[in-house]
Amino acid sequence: MRSSLYTLLFSLLAAVASAQYPAAQIPAALKVRANAVVRDMETTVDMRAPNDVGVRIKTAITILNKNGREHARLVLMYNKNSSIKYVRGQVINEWGAVKGKFSLSDFSDESAVDGGTLFSDDRLKHYLPDEHLYPYTVVYEYEKRYKQNLVLPEWQPIPGFDISVEKSQYVFISQPEDKLRIKTSNFTGKPFEEKTEKQHKITWTAENLPAVRQEVYGPDTETFLPAVRIAVEKFYYHGFRGEYRDWTELGRWTYENFLKGKRQLSPYTAAAVADMVRDLPDDKAKAKRLYQYLQQKVRYISVQIGVGGLQPMSAQEVDQLSYGDCKALVNYMQSLLDAAGIESYYCVVNAGNYKQSMMADFADMRQGNHIILCLPLKGDTTWLECTNQKLPFGFLGDFTDDRTVLACTPEGGKLLRTPKLRPEDNIQLRTAFFEVAANGTLTGTVETRFGGSQYDAHQYISNKQAGEQLEALKEIYDVDNIIVSDIKYLNEEKPVPSFIESFNCRLPSYATGSTNRTYLVLNAFNRSGQIPELRTRTMPVYLNRGYTDIDSIVYTMPTDLRLETKPEDVRIDNQFGTYELKVTQSGNRLLYRRKLVIKEGTFAPAAYEEFSKFRMRVHELDQHRAVFMKGTR
Amino acid sequence: MRKLLLSLFLGLGTFVSKAQDFEFGRMEAVDAEFDIRKFDPLANAAVLNEFGLSRIDLDDAKGQTMLLFSYHARIKILNQEGFSNGDISIPLYKSSSYDNNEEISEIVAATFNAEDRVWVRTPLDPKKIYYEDVNRSYKLVKFSMPNLKPGSVIEYSYKIKSPRLFNFRTWQFQSEIPKRTSTYIARIPAIYNYNVALRGPYKLSKQDAALDRECLRINGVAIDCSKITYRMDSIPAFRSEEFMTAASNFMSAIYFELSDQQTLQGAKINYTKSWKDVDYELKTDKNIGTQMKRADVFKDVVAPLLKDISDPLAKAKVIYAYIKKNIKWNNYRGISSDAGVKKAFETHSGNVADINYALISALTAAGLEAEAVMLSTRANGAINKLFPVISDFDYVVARLNIGDKSYLLDATDPLLPFGLLPLRCINDQGRVISLKKASEWIDLKATQREATRYVLNGEINEKGKLVGTMNIYTNGYAALDRRKQINSYNSPDEYVEKYDEKMPKTKILKYAFSNLDTVDMALSEIYQIEMDMYDGTDHNQLYFNPFLVDRIQKNPFNLSERNYPVDLGAQRDVRIVANIRFPDKYAVVDKPADLSIGLPDKGGRFLTQTTFENSVLTFSQMLTLDKSIYTPNEYLSLKEFYSRIIQLQKTDIVLKKTL
Q1: N or C end: fewer C-beta atoms under 10 angstroms in chain B?
Q2: Contacts of A466 in chain B (CB under 8 A)
Q3: Using alpha carbons only, what angle is made at residue A242 by residues A238 and A244, rounded to the nearest 5 degrees?
Q4: Is B503 helix (H, G, I), strand (E, B) or coil?
């Protein structure tokens, strides 16, 4: 009986909906540069109790063309802590007639374990309507239930690029006694609040938001997409209860519940640590020795089960397994440092090449995706990345540089900032000497110092086997038929780590030409690419990280070649950086020098034109050649 | 690639082979003496010893014969880069019926580290074995070896019980890391007969067959088994290369397929049959043959479309276009119709088989003769042609016969012209399945070249800009690619805008496309362009590089050596003609030498010619690759061929002011 009642309800629902969402009703402004339009979306979060949060999504999305097709895909994550109660939906054609329906049984069920993870209990169900006549509309409704309220869904009315929004609503229902903290970003609309004895309901509504286009060198989406985030003071999570108002309290709670007592080592390992550091002069030297030990001993493997998503595996377990995820490895490193009497902080960070800080004014558990380690060392603050077996001591690289992180300490959470890699730290300094033969073949040596973030980008090659190094260098030193030999890598101990790569090489027939002339492209290895010239630029220009490249190449030419033309010297200086090109002739030698400095920063959208012109000019200058006449006169 | 058929002679040997699994955890001198780095300088890890045994046995509880597979491997980890070989992942196939799932048992694993000349053993904690239910077709059993160090030896073994007897159990001799030795024993009861094929370039070091008397007892009847041992020693690592078809075509492995089975009552069930039997089965299969016969579904829709057309080829083109437009591919492959032709047509969506059987049915409804061609896509690998292996096929297309001509048609991609198969289908041979005749093999070759022609007409104006028109004509796969690119944008305008943005020195002032939707014709793109060349024209000397378009920036063949064939799929053809008028005051003083080079064995040509007459520079270039597959021996000449082109393209034409 019940199922037939559902069927009846469902067909009623379908009948009502069938007259809705004809594509013709979409306002023209919302179709500009849009592949899909959110017609009407309502996200309702009903926090009935800390361990019982219902989330209901009702939405209608019109897919305008094939590039918007992915917006029709419904992906529902679930695990032991959250379940999908129901899904129902239908596909509606351009004119508003129902073409088909779907329910949970149409969904594929898969584990949500990604490539780098050994195990996680996250699973997902997904469904993409098999519809190819555009435009069409997908209408669906589903409800999920969470058994925790520490991590609550955030509201982002614009779900991505090239999709506009006709209407989107966020309804947050809590108990009158619940204390909420709310963070609104890039959104000016005022919420509507209703408070009764039974519940507290807040509603945000966004309407007529045009599609946003993705642009190169654009800023982080956090800085311009509207969002509402909510955190609740008293929470429940996997059997844990707690409360927090700010980072201090959240950091303390994390320490007390997830970290404390996880750092005991076996007496055997503790003794081994004592042995290792006994004769070392100071804490820094000791920490360095232990970091090297860690890098040799453990490898990164991610295992996320239940509360394990937030809580590290114990130090003893890592000691036995010699592997762990970022939490486990940081915690293990802390235990080694403890044994040597060195203080350290477990730090939560938003890792990624894009720099993203913890929000100073809003603490919640959603932020952060990685753990690193901070050693105060009496003012000589040192940072460690514990999941990498090759990084030098005290170097974070561009994965976690220059951003605020949450240190979870017994005294509470603290926001700390990781060191910044400045343009003058991120260096690539190259010196090369080439002998040019009469047939155009170049033979010589190349030596390059990589530092800072450029160290990061090249470090992996030095770890490869010799044969693989050859292939990798061929890709980087992209000259046809290049033959590389005698590859050497030398690490340099410096405050900002760097290493020197050197090799001998031959570039067969590099300087070729016609019967009378020989052409020599002076910038052999470091030609910079093109960037698009945009007719309209709406986003600010964001340069994430600066760097400095200097290339000096000396070409010794055959004596029967006479220089006909060489590029003129150039110096460009602007707000984005500098470029210098200088070619000097001295006897039969030609010295080519190129310097490119790119600064980091955010610039007004209008600056894009100048920026793209600058990069294009650099691209062009990098192709410049010296032309030689054959036969001495 | 060579394939070797190994026949199973039952009862050939009378002795019982003693070949057995090696002892777990007992390091042997041969393992220690194997110099991995000498064998393979690139290796980060190597298999020292690997043993597998598959046998068919009776599962008493289920009363059903099962395949019991045991596996044991010992792997040396040389350095940290080799640690990923300590992350083990074993797939287990699932089926919709619970009883038919594969089961794993007896997982034993340990890491051995040499400490003070003693091998210290760290066993895997069974609690650290994870079972990941990936999707409805398989599970993964995963574990990471504990306490790994450079120099560790890891060892693990497990058993799998599988109801899947049909393909027995494939044994991969070759993997991404080198192996010292790998042994596989197949123990097969005499009532089962398998076809066995060894793929890949390497020879077995040992193969012997022995009789294992009364190895199996079913309902009181004792059955003899043959026990065949395959061993391969010193197996190089497999490293894939670009422009290669499926890796499984090249990797050394041994494959099985059940040919027939004797029941205890003495009846014989044929599985792998003659093509004659297979033909019959396919024709009567409700998801295959039956779907080819659904002319009834299309009778009424086809008639009005064809009412004024009498030419059979013209009719076929109309129907091909109609099916392409009306049924969209859901990206599933297969030779078996999923939804059925009727439903696919109604819902406008289906898998490859739905669509192409619909095409066959619709062509039949129009009174044309159409057949199915089953094939294996390039990603799926090669097909066994020694005997029918239906599971090798993953795709089906239509063959239309008009008079003595035939056309291969695939309606899954609306951008495909009539008679051109997508590149994924160009893989060796396919089997024609006709409702009327016996099946036969046919070659699957690209019927059109990947052809592009650029024509640039323009002049250098007084501001030093090159203004003119550029025409791009494309055919075959080149047209397909460009149409796909253009269609990936929401409009041609948007495509041109992006195209323009990518060429900052060039402005597209106007454009016109013809035949964008008429896919049977060459695609023509005409662009009116303006390129920044010089700052004015008051220069004593101008350098002009005639290779303005489609310049080869990078040698696609840059390996020092090549092990596998370069498979381009289709022949290539790129021609460029440019006519550029310069201001009258300039004369050419130097230009690249006209070039004419070829690949050996008529493999391809590259020609260029430059002339300057009456202030007009005429430049032409032709590049052809006349084979679709080049052998590893031809690789170095391909590489050199491209090097010569790249060198030439660096050379300018030099013009001097004469007035």
Answers
A1: C
A2: 41-42
A3: 130
A4: coil
CB B191 within 8 A of CB B200: no
Q: How far apart are CA B626 and CA B539, in angstroms?
A: 43
Q: Could you tell me how many CB contacts below 8 A there are between chain A and chain B? A: 141
pLDDT at B132: 87
Distances from the Cα of A12 to the Cαs of A5, A240, B309, in angstroms? 11, 43, 48
d(CA B429, CA B448): 17
Residue A485 corresponds to which tokens in the numbers above?
Answer: 């030999």
Please give the Cα distance from A104 to A109 (Å, whole number).
Answer: 10
| A residues 325-384 lying closer than 8 A (beta carbon) to B | none
Distance in angstroms (rounded) separating the CA atoms of residues A264 and B447: 71
Q: Is the pLDDT of residue A119 over 80?
A: no
CA-wise closest residue to B190 among B454, B427, B403, B12:
B12
Omega into A135 within 30° of 0, i.e. cis?
yes
**pTM across the whole model:** 0.85
The ipTM estimated for the assembled molecules is 0.81
Domains of chain A from N-terminus onward: 22-237 (2.60.40.3140), 246-417 (3.10.620.30), 427-630 (2.60.120.1130)
State CA B106 to chain mean position distance: 36
Q: How far apart are CA A109 and CA B24, in angstroms?
A: 38
Cα dihedral: A9, A13, A18, A24 (round 10): -170
- Residue A115's CB: how many other CB atoms inside 10 A? 4
Report the CATH number of the B450-657 domain.
2.60.120.1130
CATH number at B275-443: 3.10.620.30
The domain segmentation of chain B, as residue ranges, is 6-270, 275-443, 450-657
**Judging by DSSP bridges, how do beta strands B523-532 and B506-514 pair with one another?**
antiparallel
Least confident of A551-560, B188-197, B217-226, B629-638: B217-226
Cβ-Cβ contacts under 8 Å for B97 (sequence gap 6 or more):
none
Across the interface, do B144 and A113 touch by the CB < 8 Å criterion? no
B449 has a pLDDT exceeding 90: no
Contacts of B355 in chain A (CB under 8 A): none
- The number of beta carbons lying within 10 Å of the beta carbon of residue B304 is 8
Bridge partner residues of B133 (DSSP): B139
With CB atoms and an 8 Å threshold, state whether B146 touches A323: yes
> Are β-strands A163-174 and A36-49 bridged in parallel, bridged antiparallel, or unpaired?
parallel
Residue B353 near residue B341, CB atoms below 8 Å: no
Domain B6-270 CATH (choose: 3.30.420.40, 3.30.470.20, 2.60.40.3140, 3.30.200.20): 2.60.40.3140
pLDDT of residue A306: 64
- How far is CA B631 from each of CA B428, B560, B640, rounded to the nearest angstrom? 15, 15, 15
Task: Name the residue among A362, A332, A369 with its Cα closest to residue A348.
Answer: A369
3-state secondary structure of B597: strand
Which residues of chain B have a CB within 8 Å of the CB of A471? 559
Among A residues 374-433, those touching chain B with beta carbons less than 8 Å apart: 389-390
A570 membership: H or E segment, kind and range: strand A570-574
Selection from A377, A263, A383, A252 nearest residue A329 by Cα: A263
Name the 3-class secondary structure at B645. helix
> What's the rounded mean pLDDT across residues B43-70?
90
Assess A216–B contact: CB distance below 8 Å, yes or no: no
* A202 in Cβ contact with A46 (< 8 Å): no
* Per-residue model confidence as pLDDT tens digits over A504-540: 999 998 998 887 889 999 999 999 888 888 878 999 9
Interface of A with B in 524-583 (CB under 8 A): 530-535, 565
* Rounded Cα–Cα distance for residues A534 and A216 (Å): 9
Contact, A216 vs B504, CB < 8 A?
Answer: no
From A168, A243, A181, select the one nearest A207 (Cα to Cα).
Answer: A168
